[in-house]
Amino acid sequence: MILLYPTIVLLICMGLYTVLTQTNMIKIIIGISIVESSIILLLGAMAYFPGAAAPVLDHPFELVADPLPQALGLTAIVINASTTAIMLALVIKLHNRYDTLNIHEIKKLRG
Amino acid sequence: MDLLIWLIIIPLFTIFSIGIFNYINKKFVLPVVFTSAILQSGIAIYYIINRNNLLPQLYNVGNWQRDIAINLSIDNFTLVIFVLIAIMPLLSLLYSITEIQRKPAKFYLLINVLLLGASGMVMTADLFNFYVFFEIASISSYALVAFRDEDISLEAAFEYLIIGSIGSVFLLLGIVLTYQATGTLNMAMIPGRMAEIPVITRQVLMSLFIIGLGVKFALVPLHAWMPDAYQGSPISYIVLSSGLVVNVYFFVLVRILFIFFGVEFFQETIFTNLIVGWGVLSMLFGHGAALQQDNLKRLFAYSTIAQLGYVIIAFGLGTEAGIVAGSFHLISHALLKGAIFFTAGNLHKATGSYQIREMKGMAEKMPVMSIIFVLMLIAMVGIPPSNIFVSKWLILSAAVEAGYLLPAFMIVFGSFLSLGYYLRPVITIYTGYTGFPGKLPLLKFNEYFPTLLLAGICLIIGLFPGYILNIIDTAPEFLLEQSNFIIHILGG
């Protein structure tokens, strides 16, 4: 548990570093997915405390994990999946047009 | 009457019916889309007209306790965006009838998703739903930027998608940390608990919100996607984005900053100076970058960035006059920029290009449209009797009143700077007639009507600013006094 928050920070930094330095579009998408997943890990970590049960209240528990971050986490997972899908769809289209995955070779937009 | 929820139900219902009617008979799609757009405008107009006896209004979805409920709220500050919801979507859809020839049903579907997200963001009173609506609007924007399926639009969409995803990660981080620090996501309960947490934490949260939402309304270091996205996307989407959606993101940021942190917090720390300075920087950068553009769409994208700089200055002052002036500029810029983009789209019919250098002697081909274009460009600089003149005057007097003389000077300086690039297309259009090959394209009703209507509205606002000022003059009550908003949401 002590290492959880440093791990999240490390993951966010790793993801951002990947986005900033890579030139391959697929690798950029992987970087964004790492950042997004680390936020979901943060949401899970926030809700949990030692000894907490899952927030399913069909019979009485004394210690229950906070359900709101988990619900937000589920929403974020769905949203991340859809953005990743759009990104990959765009990559397929761009690869068909330009025959490359390198973002430095895709530059018709200069004005 | 509680019509608030219908601003969310109608677009949702339209999204599904477009799919069904497109499958049965394509003729039914347009009537369905326009009925829904007229109904949405009607609801917005209903609230604007009956503002004195309806506002503020709260709709509690599911009748839960108010502190854990899904609240939709509308108060006098929300009316700033309702003015735009009443006008922009309908005209943008009208213009798109002839512009979108390929897969129109998909375009209308995406536009309705965008409208759903925009109305939701404006009305919601808790951060969880705000995040959901934010992403709904964002994802449909990404798809709409790529809609024309050309090389540049795909490239712009990918760029926007990368920048936008990073931005929404920061926004989610801000929301998550707000929850961690305060233990609630209800926008009315956060301010009370926010006052108890350390100043440094509040500053971090504020920075996260500014970055997350700043990406979406093209705050200056995060603006790179906007000119590219506008260059590649259809005019109907640009008008809706520049005229409504960008303003919605800005509106939500203003509400979050003022309600969560309070004006006192800005005035105690250096943030007032920082935000006003940031606005000046945005404005000068936007004007400077626009000077170098040769593509009309890119030029006006940079001009939008610059005009939002004026709004940032006005709201950054944190005074009542500043908020009224900022709201007025938000509305009048959105209307005028919509008209300008429509005109640029109409002029495009003659040359088939958005490059300024290829528009030589356009005035002889399209005399009426050219004159309107010139008048609107001059109005954009702020010559009376345009609506921009009124709003710049209000911002200037608010800035001088609050003691910000250098920003006030920069507003005037920026306007002169903007004359440089607004006059360039004017000169090109009226000189060097070489004769176009081919026939003059005739404009259809749905192409010139939105242009003329928006230009007319701008002129009327310029001549009689009282109509809009009456709507927004009570807006500061719900921003400057957090207690008003809290009582409105949570009850006495």
Written description of the protein model:
The complex is a heterodimer of chains A (111) and B (492). Chain A is mostly helical. Chain A has a single domain, classed as Helix Hairpins, CATH 1.10.287.3510. Chain A is 66% helix and 0% strand. In chain A, helix 2 packs antiparallel against helix 3. By secondary structure, chain B is mostly helical. Chain B has a domain of 206 residues. Chain B has a two-stranded antiparallel ribbon with strand order 1-2. Chain B starts with 5 loop residues before the first helix and ends with a helix. The model of chain B has no long low-confidence stretch (mean pLDDT 90).
Q: Structural class per helix/strand content of chain A?
A: mainly alpha
For this entry, what is the oligomeric state of its chains? heterodimer
Q: What's the arrangement of strands in the largest beta sheet of chain B?
A: 1-2
> Might you state the CATH topology name of chain A?
Helix Hairpins
Question: What is the terminal separation of chain A in angstroms?
Answer: 51 Å
Which stretches of chain A of 5+ consecutive residues score pLDDT under 50? Answer: none
Q: Biggest chain pair contact, residues each?
A: A-B, 33 and 38 residues
Which descriptors apply to this entry?
A: 111 residues; mainly alpha; Helix Hairpins; B: 492 residues; 2 strands
Topology (elements, then pairings):
The complex is a heterodimer of chains A (111) and B (492).
Chain A: H1 4-21, H2 25-47, H3 67-98
Chain B: H1 6-24, H2 29-49, H3 51-54, E1 57-61, E2 70-74, H4 79-99, H5 104-123, H6 127-145, H7 151-182, H8 190-194, H9 199-214, H10 225-232, H11 235-268, H12 271-291, H13 296-317, H14 320-351, H15 362-365, H16 367-381, H17 387-401, H18 405-430, H19 445-463, H20 466-472, H21 477-480, H22 482-490
Antiparallel strand pairs in B: 1-2
Task: Describe, in short, the structure shown.
The complex is a heterodimer of chains A (111) and B (492). Chain A is mostly helical.
